[in-house]
């Protein structure tokens, strides 16, 4: 960088948080207001695409072009300097200078680390040079789609949101998919046992196979190093020419840690998204706020609003809210929020219609909603979620399962609540 260039705000990471921050800064006129340039450095060859749409892309439901909200000219027109495919490898805080893998040096005046997270691979004995992959980036999906997937035996490890979307996408492409999951039912962190069973049954009827309460023990490859089979922890072997890891994520925080920033599971930030260095912010899945890390975009959008304000010298305070989860599998609507693990004092209201496949479950505890699950007809979801966040006093009447109008009661409604031990 030339010595006479304007000082820069540098953003590391061109993922969903980095892109959303660019949009917010442009909308606020950041460059004119602060005199700082904006530089974005991304590790992936593609910048600013909608990662959420990788699931429908894999399933063949959207075109690749649908992933971008902005054309390449937008960055030029807004005066944003882009570096793609060249990860930052070191932050020198004393010189306020970054080094990238290609050896380039970039000075910063303010820095935002938005490096996201990566797949946490489950440990499996053995090795295969070919056939083991992840479901995180456009590169991952492109590589999966290069293969002839028809009739290919595939194993997806993990039946959370990502694992199920990967499995169903691959099945829709013709693969024979088995999902191996440690939990007793899919999405066990979002669904109660009954909801999980209903979801598993729906997916199984489409042709997905499940190995629940199982882990992978070993992999076997042919002489060329191509994956052939996977051994489960009960000793059975599954035919598998592809293994997709989708059983969890971990924050990419090492860049911050190695620069001496305070870190836990992510780069620690305060309510203004400031790290332990006042010139450095962390945003999105790489950050840790009040001991929590993030895995869905909703709270990250709230972080972006706060950080854009803070970078423009305005007040801002990030208050995290629990998120609702939606599954993106066509033909199976699912809406879930709260923690479905059993808790003393829970009272579950449930309804299941075998004809339509409608499943509704609402967990009340201490006079308020604690969790909710809807499969198939999810129309009540946003209303339930609203009352969950607002901690609206509720009565355990079955109308909660059916009638949205009856639950939109005024918040001053303070009837005594039945307590179930
Ligand atoms: C297939 C899929 C489906 C999803 N569906 C949903 C959904 O339906 N709803 C929902 O809320 N969330 C969903 N998510 C999660 C959502 O995508 C993430 O919460 C979001 O992308 C996080 O944004 P981020 O910018 O923090 O991380 P990312 O989007 O991962 O971006 C981080 C970027 O930083 C780059 N980077 C890392 N290290 C460096 C470095 N050293 N130098 C430069 N760049 C670096 C990475 O390459 C990456 O491009 C889904 C995720 C996946 C993978």
TrEMBL record:
Cofactor: FAD
Xref: Gene3D superfamilies: FAD/NAD(P)-binding domain (3.50.50.60)
Superkingdom assignment: Bacteria
Residue ranges constituting the FAD/NAD(P)-binding domain according to the UniProt record: 9-288
Keywords for the protein's UniProt record, in alphabetical order: FAD, Flavoprotein
Pfam families: Pyr_redox_2
GO molecular function, one term: oxidoreductase activity
InterPro entries xref list: FAD-bd_OxRdtase, FAD/NAD-bd_sf, FAD/NAD-binding_dom
Keyword Flavoprotein among UniProt keywords: yes
Family stated for the protein in its record: Belongs to the FAD-dependent oxidoreductase family.
PANTHER family xrefs: NITRITE REDUCTASE [NAD(P)H], PYRIDINE NUCLEOTIDE-DISULFIDE OXIDOREDUCTASE DOMAIN-CONTAINING
Stated name of the protein: FAD/NAD(P)-binding domain-containing protein
Highest classification ranks of the organism: Bacteria, Pseudomonadati, Pseudomonadota, Gammaproteobacteria, Oceanospirillales
